[in-house]
Amino acid sequence: MPGSGFDEWVAAFEAEKARREWIADPEWGHGVELPAVVVRSLQKFQVGEDGDGANLRAKADLAGDAAYSAAVRLFVDEERNHARLLAELLGAAGAPLLDGHWSDRIFVRVRRLLGLRTELMVLMVAELVAVEYYRSLRDGLADPLAREVTGRILRDERRHIPFHVQRLRQSFGEIAPSARPFAQLAWLLLALAGALFVAVDHGPALHAVRASRGRFLGAVARHARVVGARMAAREGRAVADPQAG
Length: 245
Description:
With 245 residues, the protein is mostly helical. It has helices at 6-23, 36-49, 54-62, 66-92, 102-111, 116-140, 144-172, 180-201, 203-208, 213-232. 33% of the residues are buried.
């Protein structure tokens, strides 16, 4: 698929990898003080960020776009780096890592059910949730190390959304015009279900950083509507992203 636009994403991911290596890691030796409910929440998120992405990489290979496949591998590397950062942060707090969690097992099974489009839609839900979750922690935690780590992850998650949008926009273009509104509705329902689950499961942590469940749900829902419009937009039609910047 020459000219698909993913060569630019490969360059962007590689530039970000070089930037990470240049700035090096936070000073883990300073330690971190976190509320117990935030520790439990981060332990679950750390499990979700950790994985080799083998299923996604295999589906990306089948899409027949070498640049997209390369970009997906770099995306997976960034997600694994998030897992590493969270592991280090939890270690600095004296908290153990979880071997696994039932919510992550369900998430993985759902996103592997069908093809690349379904997997990316479920991944996109995770990205939208992550943006609001890490933003809430970055803005609500007092500890400087915790704010630095969540800020670093937030920066990456924001960049991932337009990456997935670009591929999903191509995929939505393959759907019959009459079916696209239903696909967009399915996306919104999926996003709301994912956000509701996280709001309930991680509500105590959100409360600890002065971010209510309702505010969290509202923010994810607003972003999901915009992302859905961008995925379904015709070529040449621009839709602003409220999370940009």
